[in-house]
Amino acid sequence: MGQDAAHVSRRLLLKTTGAAALGGAIAAGVVPQGDTPRATAPSPSTTHLTPATKLKGTLSILQLVHYVPRYDRWFDAYAQEWGRRVGVNVRVEHVVPETLVQRTLAEIAAGSGHDLIEWIYPPSQLEPDVLDLSDVHDEAVKRFGLQQPFCKKAGYNPSTKKYYGYSHAWVPDQGDYRKSLWQQVGMGDGPSTWEELREGGKAIKQKRNVPVGIGMSNELDSNMAARALMWSYGASVQNELEQVVLNSPETIVAVDYMVRLYREAMTPEVFSWDSHSNNRGLINGKLSYILNPLSAYRTAQAEAPGTAADIFFTPPLRGLTGLGIVSQQPVFVYFVPKFSKNVDAAKEFLLNLSANDAVSTYQSELYNLPAFPAMVPQLDAWLAQDPFGSRPSNKLALLQGAATWTADVGHPGPPNPAEGEVLTRSILPQMMARAAQGKQTVQESVGQADAEVRAIFDTWRRRGLVG
After folding, report:
1. What is the CA radius of gyration of the chain?
2. Residue 98 clears pLDDT 60, i.e. is over it
3. Are 336 and 130 spatial neighbours (Cβ–Cβ below 8 Å)?
4. Distance of CA 284 to CAs 120, 297, 305, Å?
5. Model confidence over 394-409: pLDDT tens digits?
6. Max CA distance (Å), the chain
């Protein structure tokens, strides 16, 4: 690892809102406890590819504890079986969200550690410290078909033409709402626009004292909610040319909306939430609406079946543009640090994992959606009739079209290292929180955020990693 790369890694470790906060920021849901939903259909069969070269040695893998316990039980057994078949000793270490990024950056700074690491958002800031996986991506496309565009972007820098990561799965970020509460205010199908969320959320809070749950803290749900809101109002951090455009009339309107939503329909807890808070609030009946992947619902199925029956989903809320867009949350991206001692095994493992997209989608209880859609032709049928006990069985059907309303975190530009740092430092939810708390006017808070973002982009652009 070069001196420049080491400096960047240490700088990121210190400059994020604490490495532990960054770990919290990448958590997309809770780790469910208790029994998992009972499956009503068998899992697809596992595929074992023949490696292109003779493999040996040990392959060490670092990744999060998955948000659906069934997946980790399957993954660990699958990795061991793959290793047995190809002659590699596979070791998988699962860590909680609050420690993953800190562990990663510490290993990069030390120049030693795991051979293969998985993050759940684009690890774009690590590009100087990881191997180019262009060969793996090209081979995967040849074998498995086209990759979801936002999954490709999650591991690719168009400025350097380098695949710093390999995305094998993604997760949609739909709205989750308590139907019984929204029926009481005449919106049984949930809100369809941000204004309906404010109006209905205000009415529910007044009638039942149950608030809306959109976070403004240093964690991923808050970051992704801020982006979804901004995009629906025509605002963004950057444009297609990677130029900063945050300080705009559209951003002002979006932040002003969040101020009104907070004051009319939310409570101060949203400023100190961790990655579990909105999930638990929905499941415990303390929130009427959240933006969250399927994990909150699967947790409710296991822990509170009656509540699960009352949780339904909405597509992205529309704003002034008339469009609703959300970011994939998470997007699963593996990368191989330059210090990896078993690169060949790491690359073959990734290819074999994508060959089993159907199995991993099933074993995640449809939480993971495939980066290579052709590998899971039964996905629409599963979503139309959930094999894990949804009532009604077609409750997940709206996720069939999730790819059409999902974007990457850099939208409308690429998820470059600058966008990655904006996310890990939670600049957007902090921008909204300052205004909502009355610490600054909307214009002042947006101006501060714009200055912070421009400094970040300038730093990465000088290094040639932003166009």
Report:
1. 21
2. yes
3. yes
4. 26, 12, 12
5. 999 999 999 999 999 9
6. 66
